[in-house]
């Protein structure tokens, strides 16, 4: 990933993603935050079921839309992170102390974004 793009995602985390509906097969665009740690981009959200996560598990190819600063539409692939040790390592690195880390590890959607 280019350094200017990683900088933009770390600085202005609010982006959109367009996924393919798990059941409908239609494009679904939503606003979400990115999290950057050690040069890797992640998507996560508060604990609970999320349609975007179900969509990415069924159809991992998606488009990440950078909306601020650099305005880009980037093809990407999601890798759901379900291993508890990996989830703990990632969420510990991206969340600040204002979140309930244990609740996020137990029940938050979490994917690594691959831009290759």
Verbal overview:
This protein is α+β, with helices and mostly antiparallel strands. It is 30% helix and 37% strand. The chain has four helices and six strands, in the order H-E-E-E-H-E-E-H-H-E. It has helices at 3-11, 51-58, 84-94, 101-107, and strands spanning 14-20, 27-37, 40-44, 61-66, 72-80, 110-114. It has a six-stranded antiparallel β-barrel with strand order 1-2-3-6-5-4. A hairpin with a 5-residue loop joins strand 4 (61-66) and strand 5. Helix 3 (84-94) packs across helix 4. The protein is globular, with a radius of gyration of 13 Å. The model has no long low-confidence stretch (mean pLDDT 92).
Rg result: 13 Å
Our estimate of the beta-strand percent is: 35-45%
Give the low-confidence spans: none
Side-by-side strand order of the widest sheet: 1-2-3-6-5-4
Shape descriptor reads globular
Structure annotation, total helices: 4
Distance between the termini: 8 Å
Overall helicity: 25-40%
Helix and strand element order = HEEEHEEHHE
Largest β sheet strand count, sense and barrel closure: 6 strands, antiparallel, barrel
Mean pLDDT: 92
Structural class: alpha+beta
Q: Compute the number of strand runs.
A: 6
Fold topology:
Layout lengths: L2 H9 L2 E7 L6 E11 L2 E5 L6 H8 L2 E6 L5 E9 L3 H11 L6 H7 L2 E5 L2
Helix pairs in contact: 3-4
Keywords:
116 residues; alpha+beta; six-stranded antiparallel beta barrel; 6 strands; 30% helix
């Amino acid at each position: 990933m280019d350094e200017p793009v990683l900088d933009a995602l770390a600085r202005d985390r609010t982006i959109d993603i367009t996924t393919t509906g798990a059941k409908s097969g239609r494009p679904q665009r939503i606003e979400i935050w990115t999290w950057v740690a050690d040069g890797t981009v992640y998507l996560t959200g508060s604990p609970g079921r999320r349609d975007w996560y179900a969509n990415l598990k069924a159809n991992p190819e998606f488009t990440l839309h950078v909306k601020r600063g650099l305005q880009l539409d980037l093809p990407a692939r999601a890798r759901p992170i379900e291993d508890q040790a990996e989830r703990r390592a990632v969420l510990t690195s991206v969340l600040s102390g204002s979140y309930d880390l244990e609740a996020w590890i137990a029940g938050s959607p979490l994917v690594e974004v691959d831009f290759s």
